[in-house]
Structures are given as C-alpha cells and as structure tokens.
Design a protein that fits this description.
Helix content is about 15%, strand content about 30%. With about 220 residues, it is α/β, with parallel strands linked by helices.
Length: about 220
C-alpha cells in the first residue's frame, strides 16, 4: 500500500478516512500515517474513525520540514482554504499530491485529471471530461460528457452536471445542485444547495433557487 498523510481534522478528513477504509477492504491501496492540522488537539483528544485511531503528527510545519518523499491529501472542503494550504505546502518539493479515487467510482479512460484531486465513492465522470488540480468531488457527484472543472473547485454530495458544463476555478456547488447541459459557470461562484442552474453564471457571485438566481456579487 502507498503511505499518505492527510491535511485537516474536520468532517471532510474523517469521511475520507472512512472511504479509504472501505476501499482497502476491497483493494488495499492507502496506508494513513496520520494527519496534520493548524489546530493542535487538546489533551486527551484523539481522532477516531470507525475502529481506527488517526495519529496527530503536528501542524503544517511538520510537512514543511519533511526531507523525504511523502504523499499528502488536502482534506478541506473550502476552495479558498484548500488553495491556501496547497500553496503553502508546495514550498517543500518532497511533498506529492496524488489523485485519490475512492470506491465504486466510474471514470472514463479518456478523462484528464490534474494533481491532488479527491474523487469520492459513487462518483461518475463521463467521456472527455477535464478535471483541474485539487478538485474535490464529494460522494455521488456526477460529471457528464465534455465537462470541465477548474482548479480547487468543490462539488458537494449528489451534484449533477449535465453534458458540456464548464465550471471555473475555486467555485463551490452545493448539495444536490443540478446544472443543465451546456452551461458555463464562472470562477469563484457559490451555488446553493438544491439549486437548478439553467443559464450561464458570471464569476464572483452566489446563486440559489430553482431556477438559480443571483443573490450576491
């Protein structure tokens, strides 16, 4: 198994641990060495997922001091925070950011994917899709044919993007949102949970509703 260190201590990290546990039952893939986080645990505080205790290794400074090759996954849902953490860790060239593809996913062989992506269980990525760097696809999300997802974007659980949808970098699409075919979404866009996007969305705004309408930006 490949060894990996996780960054973050919240629900996103703990869900990733659970998904790794489930993947390893079927095909031993990842050995979690521990996690790092800006917040130091209180005395007696431990991170337990299922029956496994995940050791705290230190803050980001721990990784910045590493002098041997190490795999790292940044387990943070916020695009802006994920970008900030990644840019800090890239100061150490010993750190590698593999793509993590978890259980029961379906990804077409012609999909192109950058580095540091997390594709959660039950995701589907269809033909000719393009996935940028450090994209986080949460459980059950779907990208249909010819889709394009920009760097650091987050798709929440059960997001469905129809064919030829383009999403700009650092955007966040909420739980269960749907985007119809051929839509372009700008960078740094927030789409509220349950929204249905039926027309193009400009950059740097927040939209909600059915159909989705701008409320901020």
């Amino acid at each position: 198994m490949e060894h990996i260190i996780l960054v973050g201590s919240g629900g996103c990290m703990r869900e990733l641990v659970w998904q790794i546990q489930e993947l390893n039952k079927e095909c031993p893939t990842w050995q979690i060495d521990g996690y790092v986080d800006a917040r130091v645990p209180k005395e007696g505080e431990v991170c337990v997922v299922g029956t496994e205790t995940i050791p705290f290794l230190g803050t980001d400074e721990y990784l910045l001091a590493v002098q041997e090759q190490v795999n790292v996954a940044v387990c943070v849902g916020s695009p802006a925070l994920r970008k900030k953490i990644v840019h800090g860790l890239k100061k150490n060239h010993c750190i590698h950011f593999p793509n993590m593809v978890l259980g029961n996913t379906r990804i077409c062989a012609d999909v192109q994917m950058g580095e540091g992506c997390i594709v959660s269980m039950d995701c589907r990525i269809s033909t000719n899709a393009r996935i940028g760097n450090f994209v986080f696809l949460n459980t059950g999300s779907m990208i249909c044919h010819d889709g394009s997802i920009g760097d650091f974007t987050t798709l929440s659980p059960e997001v469905k993007l129809a064919g030829n949808v383009k999403v700009g970098r650092e955007s966040e699409i909420g739980l269960g949102a749907k985007v119809i075919q051929g839509i372009t979404i700008g960078e740094n866009v927030v789409i509220g949970a349950g929204s249905v996007v039926a027309r193009d969305i400009e950059a740097n705004c927040t939209v909600v509703g059915v159909p989705a309408r701008k409320i901020k930006g």
